[in-house]
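Students often ask why inverse folding is considered easier than folding. One informal answer: many sequences map to the same fold, so there is more than one right answer. In these notes we will look at a single instance of the problem. The structure comes first.
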């Protein structure tokens, strides 16, 4: 764990050096105009590249992008709430005591992120979308497997989120508040991802010889399912309902109810290509460890 100890020292120093008051970080406008400004990059919207997207007026596309941004920030809130709970449980655990100094910074930064995401959602949409994720329970043989699966799920969640954050932090078409939130999250996630990759590698290397092939296969299957279910949340029927797509598409698209649009968006080749492209970095890392499928393997696309 010597290399991990050095990484923890570097990350703690970076977190201390970049410590900030989250309440002074951004200037919140009194109100925003969802049909005038972009709040999510149009290419990242769940229906981008589909025939339905092309049928929408420019105002409807921006209105959809606004609700997609609210959904994206809501997913971050739910993901980081589960993350914080798991980190708090492991602050001084047997396998995590050596990294506890950084876990305190990790918790602090994730809490600040939730403040940003929650403020946007409540101030401009009046709500946070509920968490729809349902993942079957993993068969966990020991505490080491539980720790690995926790940090692997954190890594999957944060890798996917960061791909969106990075793209939108550079997109000057977006409203400045959306750029600022995505930029802040990306900068701090860079530290979290460096820690997460090292933690997963250390836990997998330490536990794999004792776990055996059957347990390892079960964990791989569980992570594949978690990956797919995490992606499915980006196709939220509540978003399509709130964006008024049924009325917008009436008479021009047959299956325009929210659940039909979710199925259509998920299955569309453009959507699948986007998911594979944005998942490749994380999938490659897990495959290199031996804990996940190859990036080109479509199995991680399956949702029960």
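Output (designed amino acids):
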């Amino acid at each position: 764990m010597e290399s991990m100890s050095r990484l923890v020292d570097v990350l703690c120093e970076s977190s201390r050096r970049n410590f900030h008051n989250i309440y002074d970080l951004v200037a919140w406008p009194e109100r925003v105009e969802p049909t005038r400004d972009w709040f999510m990059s149009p290419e990242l919207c769940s229906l981008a590249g589909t025939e339905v997207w092309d049928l929408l007026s420019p105002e409807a596309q921006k209105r959809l992008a606004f609700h997609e941004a609210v959904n994206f920030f809501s997913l971050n809130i739910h993901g980081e709430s589960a993350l914080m709970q798991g980190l708090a449980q492991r602050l001084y655990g047997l396998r995590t005591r050596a990294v506890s100094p950084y876990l305190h910074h990790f918790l602090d930064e994730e809490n600040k992120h939730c403040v940003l995401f929650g403020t946007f959602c409540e101030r401009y949409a009046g709500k946070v979308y509920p968490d729809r994720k349902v993942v079957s329970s993993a068969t966990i043989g020991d505490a080491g497997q539980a720790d690995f699966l926790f940090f692997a799920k954190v890594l999957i969640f944060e890798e996917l989120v960061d791909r969106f954050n990075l793209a939108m932090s550079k997109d000057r078409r977006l409203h400045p508040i959306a750029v600022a939130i995505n930029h802040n999250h990306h900068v701090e996630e860079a530290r979290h991802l460096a820690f997460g990759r090292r933690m997963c590698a250390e836990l997998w290397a330490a536990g794999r010889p004792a776990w055996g092939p059957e347990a390892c296969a079960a964990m791989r299957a569980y992570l594949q399912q978690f990956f797919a279910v995490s992606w499915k949340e980006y196709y939220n029927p509540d978003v399509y309902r709130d964006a008024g797509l049924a009325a917008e598409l009436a008479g021009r698209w047959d299956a325009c109810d929210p659940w039909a649009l979710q199925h259509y968006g998920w299955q569309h080749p453009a959507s699948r290509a986007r998911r594979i492209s944005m998942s490749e970095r994380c999938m490659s890392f897990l495959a290199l460890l031996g804990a996940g499928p190859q990036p080109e393997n479509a199995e991680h696309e399956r949702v029960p």
